[in-house]
Amino acid sequence: MAVLAIFSGVLCTLAVATALGGWLLGPSCRNEGTRFVTGASLLHLAVFCLAAAGLLYPWAIVAVGFAAVMFGYQASRPAAVTHTDLWIGRQAVALGKLRWLFLAIFAVYFLLYLSNALAPEASPDGAGYHLGLVGRYLREHGFHRITDNFYAALSQGAEMVYLVAYVFGQNSAAALVHFAFLIALVWQMFCYARNAGLPLAGACAALLVFASPAVGIDATSAYNDVALAAVAFTLFFLLNLWDDARAGRLLLAIGLVAGFSYAVKYTAWPAVPYAIGFVWWKSRSRRTALIVATGAAVMILPWMAKNWLTYHNPVAPFFNHLFPNPYVTAAFETEYRRMFTTYGLPSRSKILMEVTTYGSLSGLLGPVFLLSPVALLALRRREGRHLLLAALVFGVNYFSNIGTRFLIPPLPFVALALAFVLAAWPGVLVAVALVHSVISWPGMVRKYAHPDAWFIRHMPWQAALRIRPADPYLEDRLIYYGVTRMVEQNTRPNSAIFTFTPIPEAYTSRRIVISFQSAGNRVLNDILYSAIVPEFQPTWRVRFTFPRQPLGAVRVVETASSTELWRIHEMRLFDGVRELPRDPRWRLRAQPFPWGIQDAFDNNPVTFWISGEYPRPGHFVEVDFGAPASVDSVTIETAPNQLPLQFRLDGRDPSGQWKPLAARPETFDAHAPLGMRRAAAEELKRRGIDYILAFDGELGADDFQRNSDLWGIRPISEHKGARLYQLP
Amino acid sequence: MFRPWFVPLACVAVWAGCSSLPDSYPPPAQRRPLASVPSNIPFGPMFAISDSNARDQIVRGVAETGPRTWRWTDAHPVFRFYVPEAPRAQFLMDFTLPPVTFRQTGPVTLTFRLNDQPLDRVRYDAPGELHYRKAIPDPLLHRNGINLIAIDAEPAWVSKEDGRTYGFILVRAGFAE
User: Which of A132, A204, A245, B158 has a CB 3.0–4.6 Å from the CB of A84, allowing a cystine?
Assistant: First the structure.
């Protein structure tokens, strides 16, 4: 029954998308793969609108799908064959006897992939945020402000399409839709090469992509890289089709698909200038370029608007220095980008072998792609130049994330260019494709890839057909699946669980708050640390003293740059020994990160303001008294995790002039007060957290266990070293 | 000349320019201080020799002068602490038995008393920087009150230069959770 539901969801999604594509393209293009991907762009937009309107109910999705199928097929009923049909029709060049060999290889890989896609979703990110968010949107019937998970800010074009299938068949249906994008991709590759008069090259290039280990595991998981590759190739295919036929209705489709590239993954934004530039270059017509731009804007602007309304940043979670916001800090973004540009590799010279052969950058394309430089020889052909330009467009952002997955979008273009070059020696071309298909089989990959490489390792038919129940299968294959089920079974509905370690949130309906996934979560993390980790405890005092005088405001100003965030647990102002009470007329300011400054004035030692950006000279925290007040010292209570501390204190006299009050503070130690653990736990509760999930070995985990009474937390459950506590 | 393609660009620019950082905030509601010490009591649950109010915590037996971060005690120092309400407490002390004196005294035994009740007795067989930590049995502790810790060091080291008796070098002592 479950398998039936899964296939129902997949087939409905494919039917709706293909119908919409047929409606949009009409007789201009009858390629099924192109229609499916183009229609998926419209389907994504329809689901987006439902989610934005809070109408994400199964009945609404079914109604939209039904209407789309009826309307789409009515509108795209076969008409007289046009010259653009001939463009496709010219592809009827047989592969001869090799056809059966290729079909057999494709069939074997198809079965391998089908079993994996149909099996319960066990990929880390697919079972994490990709489908975790899809499930959440459906449960909440639309988009809600999700400010504690920066992945929710990424464009989720593919996930909107998965959502249709998810309604029927849940996680596996989503993965199968992603797999359908792979089928659409390789079919279009073959059709393109057939049209170029090189069907054998098309078949070989399609096989190079289809059998690639990285492509295989990605396409059978609820990721979006292969979907993006399919969208990218569809755009390329449509551009060439338009260049050949100049059918006007293709222009809007080109724009929509270009914009859909961005909607699927930010890294594909160059698709838009590529598409606009291509049509403008070929037509020298601003009107055609404007049509394409309009189509792209229709796909892109909804995502930007959503992010603007939610995060005050249209391109969240990136460019936070241009669009500062309280949810993702510029400092975090800097670290995040740095991490993904290196993956800890000692040198970029290692990348080539890792992405082709060893797989430690989360997957491998296959050793055959070491031949990729040969593809440059395709520059001699017009098609080759087009292919390599497209490879450049969709690969230009690779070095912002050197994971192998990020090479999947340009891969089809490289594979085709390589095959076009090798087509001069058909025997060599076929040999390369056959060798690739042999050494990409899971049993072979194990022999040369690193143990941490991400690739398909099994053909799980029993799990796919649900002969083997999902629970034990996922316990074996998906890390922390059992922990997630423990969370689901032992927590209240709608509760929030804070954890330092991500768990597969697609398998729980609870809100999982992961320590690094937003600025607010990071603060929660450090509030807990402030109770027990000496470096995070507010045991440092920074005191400025100066002659007693009336002041309208004081400002603590950074005088040096640092790579440690500046934080203030409490800032106190004194007139002699008397602390100035925090007057409602006071106004608190901080630049460049104003959010959270109140936490430095709440008299709670576990809360703090954090600078968001790495300190630079001129950054400041200011207290405006509203009316002149006599002051002779300012004390900052902070933690010793932010060397070097270099500040000066400025004051604004009653005439409104700013002047330096103290060039340098004195610093000294103090003791953390008793009750920090309890205060930290209560603060998490106040900030909406109901439970803490801690794994043995994590910083603080043993303290939760030993001193749960001091925290005021109650142990609820334990699963293989993961312990769940309820907050007071 | 009207250039229509500028319109969407201008819209996006204006839209993006609508960003406004919050200018300022009022002070928030004030929290109840954690486990606070009454204002008329000048000492707390913990002190380090470097603290400005360290003298207030010392009842007797600690050298009046010395470096900023440590002081010699005599053989029977006594300290006082205000311990607020806490579910559990432990007494901890960072101290040193210098090798120079240890060579003459041999192993040193510290006997701890809390509020005139025996708390612990520990023998130190090696010199160096040492850390003592002991969970306090509930009945011994005066919560929301003043607690006296008395320590006897045996044998103490007697200086041949001035004839004075020295117990150990104190850095920090007090109650923690």
Answer: A245
